[in-house]
């Protein structure tokens, strides 16, 4: 693989790794509620928390950077409209799945009150908050692009204040939007020069970021308030650089590149569908397999594998059955959109 191909492939590798981390996180949450996930998985997710969503959002910002050069109309038609449509559609699908299928043990209110389908546009309460956040971030990135440097500085301070509970918000979605905003904006506004810099010296950056991550990880548990917030934001920044360097190296190894890039190119179908599948598998394992030996240790990996495969299979079936509208704007809508210049 050429250097240019590697620089392009590592983004898909990193996306693939990040979506798998999200599935691992949700599998642990649901199985833990059922008493079927070892505490080691909780510790693993705690260790990976500083990188999981910052990496996902930074890569999303990097891939959205081209939209910032286009007009507002193009941004609304080709990005905001898509996210709004997917958020609405999958909110409805999830609502009725949990209303008439199984209880969402993590968020029992999902599926209980139709009013949540409306209030969710202001205060998302499900895992679909990520799609909602992407739409909001795209608008902010476009609006503040002329003032990128000072805006990013303000967002970093706001992120640290949110992590440190100086800015306290009740909604987890609002908390996450404030906490992770600078990572998306950094990817959207400064992603290209940052990637070029990373590609020139991945070993040095991996070493430095690893040392910083270890130091901040050891210190953060001893801090609180503003100091904790600053350290926590820095911890994610160090993890983001280190994970990007690891992805760059992984992209040079063909088996890892092929596997993770495939997941990276299919993050959307995995993301929108995996949580209902994970919650169903967790309920089934707890009800039918609780007596099997060592379920607490193999249940999470099994759930991750099956849920990821099932989400991808659902996408494949939908494509073949003419149900592409589950993952993209309906053709009736896109046909009326003006062509790009």
From TrEMBL:
It is a multi-pass membrane protein. One of its GO terms (biological process) is enterobacterial common antigen biosynthetic process. Keywords: Acyltransferase, Cell membrane, Membrane, Transferase, Transmembrane, Transmembrane helix. GO terms for molecular function: O-acetyltransferase activity. Residues 9-313 form the Acyltransferase domain. One of its GO terms (cellular component) is plasma membrane. Belongs to the acyltransferase 3 family. This is Acyltransferase 3 family protein. It comes from Aureimonas frigidaquae.
